[in-house]
Amino acid sequence: MTTEYTGWRRDKEGLGLWDGQGKVAIVGMGQSDVDRRWDGVSMDKTYGAYGIKAIQQALDDAGVKAEDVDGLFVCPETGAGATGGASSDWGPSRPYFEPPYDSEWGLSRLNAKWIIDNMPGFTNVKFAPDNVPAIGEQMGMVSQAVADGKCKTALLVYGMNNFEGRYRHGGDNASDFAPGPRQWNAPWSSGDGLQLTGAITIQQYCERYGVDWDEMMGPVIINEHRNGLMHDWGFYSLHGASGLTQEDYASARPVLWPCRIWDCDRPVNAVGAFLFTTPDRAADMKQKPVYVLNHNGGQGGSVRSSQETLDESEAGRAQVARMAYEGSGLHANEVDIFNPYDGYSFFLPLTLEGFGWHGVGKGDSKDFFNGDISVEGPHPFTSGGGNLGVGRTRTAMYIDSIEQLRGTAGKRQVNIKAETAICAFAPARSAAYLCLSSVKP
User: What is the pTM of this model?
Assistant: First the structure.
């Protein structure tokens, strides 16, 4: 059952229209509750319990049974351990519990074996790769696997967890020291350097385009909090609205100038699940299918040093946009729903301008964000609330895009046409974008 799966990435320009168009549909999804962290006591709120809850919701949403699933794609990455390698095996120092919580599987990590062993019905899983990446490329991996005929009904499971103490406890972050190049970025970031490099690039952005950061970003972050409250499962829906105002945002604690605490998504404990299948099977399922037009991975170019420049950032976003548009066949004016990644808010202006959504060009984000970007208005940007609006689930962008195209987004349902969508978990220049359509290509 467990196997490696390679050759599925679309990670460069010039690949043309994705040949999987018309072969893959998303038909189900589920999302657990979103907590700040597991309390170490409530066994119905463990990582595994939330995974089972999300999976069952996805199956029920599509109207299928676990026995119908023949592909299972579970990302073992966690919010607690550092990404990838042995460092992701980190687990807190504490006694374990009775089975199935007698190891880190089900507590701080998930994999296909744990789900099969602890959730009845997964008896027909034939394809379950063990090299599953984070949700951005994970969406592409599952899409390509269904298009390639590796499986016919595939379940994607992705979670982010959070434990008390230092974020990303594993790997180099477990050390109290920052040797070598880490001395320059580790003290200012979660270890990946994105806060440092991103904030410096945004300082260049504000200088070049004559933009006041607070005036540009306050409105879009407040709008994301508003949209996030329209989900019943988001962090602020379950634990109390932030009540964020422009004054609150501008006066909040700086993290790395000019970024405030509200520019950074809140680490949480939650799991999401999505069900992919072939169009012929989708026709017999409960929900209106949403078709995958394209997926991308890799990076939008490279940079010359550890600190990318604004020019490099803009060029990288433009390259990523070209990859998404080339593979999907869409043009900027044909994208109805746009839910880019917002783990740090400073990703948003550069991504918006790189994709040219609703005609926004370089330096135009401030005016756009200060216009009507509500879900009721003509420019419903980040209609899902993103990570800033629901917590660091990394799923809100996908859930909202699917619901908008289905017409089931409830209070968030936009008033503009909603037939195509682009969504992502794509930090910085990552090219992990997913293009969707409500109409079979």
Answer: 0.95
